[in-house]
Amino acid sequence: MRGVGGEGSSRDRKPRAVRKGIALAVACLLILAAFFVVRGGPPRSDEEQIRDLITTGKSAVEAHNLPTVMGLISKDYKDSFGFNRDRLRILLGQTFRDQADTTVNVSALQISVSRASATAAGATEATAQMTASISSRSRASGDLHSGDYPITLHLKKEPGYRFLVLPQEKWRVVSASGTGFGIDSSLFELF
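Request: output the structure for the sequence above.
Response:
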């Protein structure tokens, strides 16, 4: 019988203490795991972040995933050919509708990261130069178009969020240039 003569209460204390210890250990492990998930592991270099952006963009173009591609483009996007973010979205949307398959291979990638001023704590601007080999098949005719295009992306760090609530700066493309860009260029004829 519990609680009679004090015998049962000492036995109840041991399992209760063990349960509290286990619960405390599990809570500590969950807090530690949450910290690592939120923190995202060790800080990554700007070059690694830009390489990831290019890899994400390549995969998104191949999958014709317009929202992902546009998530990599700055709201301030403007290039020397007159394209802004809205015009680029329209062009890419038409391209993705008109093309059945798209393959992108990036080679000769060179990344240059700089600070906007001598007092800036972190890198704020970057340039990524590469050659993009693009091949695409037209939905209408089935024709395969391909070419190699030297491309230079101009990037800057902008405010962003991780998990929709944690502030984190993100690299975004603010301009693009190269022989593959322009209204009369064959790159846009591919799409």
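The mean pLDDT is 80.
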